[in-house]
TrEMBL record:
Keyword terms: Hydrolase, Iron, Metal-binding
Record family assignment: Belongs to the cyclic nucleotide phosphodiesterase class-III family.
Matches recorded under InterPro entries: Calcineurin-like_PHP, CNP_phosphodiesterase-III, Metallo-depent_PP-like
GO molecular function: hydrolase activity; metal ion binding
Stretches assigned to the Calcineurin-like phosphoesterase domain: 15-209
Descriptive protein name: Calcineurin-like phosphoesterase domain-containing protein
Gene3D superfamilies given in the database record: 3.60.21.10
Amino acid sequence: MTTMTTMTTMEPIFFIHLTDIHISVPGKKPLFDLEMSHKLRAACAEIRTLETKPSFVVISGDLTHDGDLEDYRFLKKLLDEEEALLGIPIHVALGNHDFREPFREGYLEEEPSNESYYYSFMANGLRIVMLNTQVPGTHGGRLDEVQLAWLKGLLAEPAPSGTIIVHHHPVMGTPTVIMDDHLLENPQDLENVIEGSDVIGLLSGHIHYHNVGTLRGILCAAADGLAFGLDPSASSNMRFIDRSGYNLITVKNGQMSVQPMTLPGEQRLLYELNVTKIHAEA
Ligand SMILES: [Fe+2]
Ligand SMILES: [Fe+2]
């Protein structure tokens, strides 16, 4: 019986990490005249062709671009359809482009409130924690004390195959100063909570390009944006690229591995923003 349990928990677990889908109702197109729902549908179509079927999908925030009620109602319909086609659940976290009240009303279909949104779920012995790093009214990212205390309590009990944390704002440095301004403001607090726990990986987004680092030896991977990409080699400009990526995540023997994926496309430059000039004028 013990052997059977061990075998079960040691089986590889495979799932999908999407981020920054920036969905709007069809026809609204607030970004570069792109229909972001088409990007999500294209990614899900590609995922359906994978030879190994994933167990679930996580989306690490910036679910909508404007955060309007009608955007969340459309997102709910869109993800319900894709869940049915994929045959696996899709779990979401919030980002800086999301707003709690319309999210709760339009997506969760409950009474609107400003209550934060974080939770955990189990899949084949692996625990996934969906955190909320958004700070209402800002684009910054921070984990408040209430959420950190909740996380500490949760991690007091280890999961059979370890824990992966999903959150919007990354914790590790990037190649450009511009994007380092977008990191989680209090990574030390998160580090203190996960130290000595069963956490084996952190998955984030927000910077719209692939980035890998470690926090106390724990693998941290930011996925490319699905709605659009940014150019990580641009040091003073934000270069918006028509590029869509996501990550395949495998957990095997208590270790997390990350396989970056990029959807087919010409990766044309959509828009270039001179951030240095904006900062100088501010
Ligand atoms: Fe984003
Ligand atoms: Fe973001």
